[in-house]
Every structure is written in C-alpha cells, then in structure tokens.
Amino acid sequence: MTIRNDESPAKIELLKHMKATCEANREIILVSLCTTDGFPIGCFSINELSNQSDKFAAMSSTLSALSDSSASQMKQGKCNITIVEATSGNILFVKTDYIGKPCVLTVVAQDKMALAEARYKTKKLRSKISAITE
C-alpha cells in the first residue's frame, strides 16, 4: 500500500485535525496515523514523542493486527478498538480509512482524561479522518 507522503491537501487536512484534537484536549499527548502494514502517515504530539513516529507506526499496526486475529480466533467478530491501560494513561488503537485506504489511528491520553472521554474523542477524530478525500 502506498500513501503519498507529501504536503497534499489531504495530508494538510489530516494534520489540521490531529493538531486541533491535541490542542482542544490537553490530556491527549499524541495522535498518530499509520498504514496497516506499519508505515507512518502523520503524527502530532504536544511533546517530543512525535520524533518516534516510525516506532509508533510499527507498534500500532502490529497491535491492531494482533487484536484482529484474537477477536477472530475467539469468534468475536472484528476488533473495533484496542485499549492499553497504562499507569500514566490510556493508548487507543482504532482502525479507520484515510483517502480510501485502511489505516490505524493511535491516540495517547494521560490518566487525567477518563477512558470514556478518550474513546469519544478518538471516535470523533476517526470520523473526521475517514471523511478526508484526495
């Protein structure tokens, strides 16, 4: 799968939505989008985490694939969201489409944000990203 890595209107819109989500919700410290095979598309962070976008893309695609496989093997249908609850917050992995291609959206929220709110904000961002066209 190839997704252009230039500053196309679609990429600019993607980064605008990522930045707006982080700025409107200070508890969200990272938003990342990658292909299902582990290549970074875009990453926005309020701290130094964004310089590790390659690592996040690899981890996100792997965890998403493992979650899909687990749900399938346990006859639970398709995996909608994977949540990692950590000591300092939550990490949410959600499948979405970006310019018609399947991707994985990753959102990292500090523990000050309730999990339900993090889920809501992540699903809202997923809707915006899936509406982006070329």
Explain this structure.
This protein is an alpha+beta fold. The protein has three helices and five strands, in the order αββαβββα. It has helices at residues 9-24, 53-73, 115-130; strands at 28-35, 40-45, 81-86, 89-98, 101-110. The protein has a five-stranded antiparallel beta sheet, with helices on both faces.
| Shape category | globular
Biggest sheet, open or closed, and with what strands and sense? 5 strands, antiparallel
Mean pLDDT: 91
The number of helical elements comes to 3
Topology, number of strands: 5
Secondary-structure element order, N to C: HEEHEEEH
How large is the share of residues in beta strands?
Answer: 25-35%
Q: What's the topology here?
A:
Blueprint: H1 9-24, E1 28-35, E2 40-45, H2 53-73, E3 81-86, E4 89-98, E5 101-110, H3 115-130
Antiparallel strand pairs: 1-2, 1-5, 3-4, 4-5
Helix pairs in contact: 1-3
Main traits of this protein?
40% helix; five-stranded antiparallel sheet; 134 residues; alpha+beta
In short:
The chain has 134 residues and is an alpha+beta fold. The chain has three helices and five strands; from the N terminus they run αββαβββα. The chain has helices spanning 9-24, 53-73, 115-130; strands spanning 28-35, 40-45, 81-86, 89-98, 101-110.
